[in-house]
Amino acid sequence: MGAGHDHGSVGDSRARLWVAFGLTFAVFCAQVVGTVVTGSIALLTDTAHMLTDAAGLAMALIAATLVRRPPSPKRTWGFRRAEVIAAFLQASLLLVVGAYSAVEGIRRLVDPPDVPGPELLVFGAVGLAANVAAIAVLASGRRASLNMRAAFLEVMNDALGSLAVIVAAVVIATTGFLRADPIAGLVIAALIAPRAIKLIRESVAVLMEFTPAELDLDDVRRHIRGLDHVLDVHDLHASTVGTGMPTLTGHIVVRDECFTDGHAAELLDEVKACVAEHFDVRVDHATFQIETERTRAAESSTHH
């Protein structure tokens, strides 16, 4: 027995993503020129980061388009997980950029090259201005999906990276301390890594179908077992298909007479209401099999 549901929809974030992508790509092109002119590792790191973000925003756009495609008999969930895959790829690219920045920054600390401070300041300021504009565009939709959150975090990291470039440029221009440039590169790497790792963990948890962090299955099991006529609950599984779409399945054991006195149908409604209202996350897509003790005994399930 189960419940039929619309698979839900996510807001159309493509307009915001297009604007953010346009700004990011334009700044990337400008920073390529700036990197060649200045030879700055901080700007090179920020440029590589900007390229990663442009690619990430492009993937986010593709994912946001795929997510809106309706389910079909061959793809019953549609492309709801496209956003999760895009977030994983974005975070992985970020981590690679962060690792490169750390290695190159340490190398340049030993032998810092000559970097022109004024030119570096100009390109850092251009990057920061564009990043602030992109942040303003994406901010209101950052909680709509894992995909949008990834895009927002990348632009935020870019803004902090551009700020680090500006600080390095000011220090070099005023004091001549050339190691400010690789230090800024290391700061950018330090900003990238923790967020990338966190996003990878979250996306992997969805792809591996781990139980949603907000849902305590032991608590769910206790609630269901506390309902009248319920003898046991087994094969209880929970996962997340996409943003805002947790799913729950399970087998509920009841007495034989529940199938003759009408309690089975009533119980199914109670269980659906229970999982939709009693927990930190609302589970609207839940499927339960109501069975007797004899059916339970005949099963050879390995899950508990």
Report on this model:
- By secondary structure, the protein is mainly alpha-helical.
- It has two domains: 14-207, Up-down Bundle (Alpha-lytic protease prodomain-like), CATH 1.20.1510.10; 217-298, 2-Layer Sandwich (GMP Synthetase, Chain A, domain 3), CATH 3.30.300.30.
- Helix content is 63%, strand content 10%.
- It contains nine helices and three strands; from the N terminus they run αααααααββαβα.
- Strands 1-2-3 form a three-stranded mixed sheet.
- The model is unreliable at 1-11 (pLDDT under 50).
Concise account of the structure shown:
The protein is mostly helical. It has 2 domains: 14-207, Alpha-lytic protease prodomain-like (Up-down Bundle); 217-298, ANL, C-terminal domain (GMP Synthetase, Chain A, domain 3, 2-Layer Sandwich), CATH 3.30.300.
How many angstroms separate the termini?
Answer: 19 Å
Strand content: 5-15%
State the helicity in percent bands: 55-70%
- The CATH class designation of the largest domain is Mainly Alpha
Uncertain ranges: 1-11
> What shape does the CA trace take?
elongated
Distinct helical segment count: 9
Query: Rg to the nearest angstrom?
Result: 26 Å
Largest sheet: 3 strands, mixed
Number of domains: 2
List SSEs in N-to-C order: HHHHHHHEEHEH
CATH superfamily of the largest domain: Cation efflux protein transmembrane domain
What strand line-up does the widest sheet have?
Answer: 1-2-3
Structure classification:
mainly alpha
Summarize model confidence as the mean pLDDT. Answer: 79
Number of strands: 3
Topology-level CATH name of the largest domain: Alpha-lytic protease prodomain-like
CATH architectural arrangement of the largest domain: Up-down Bundle
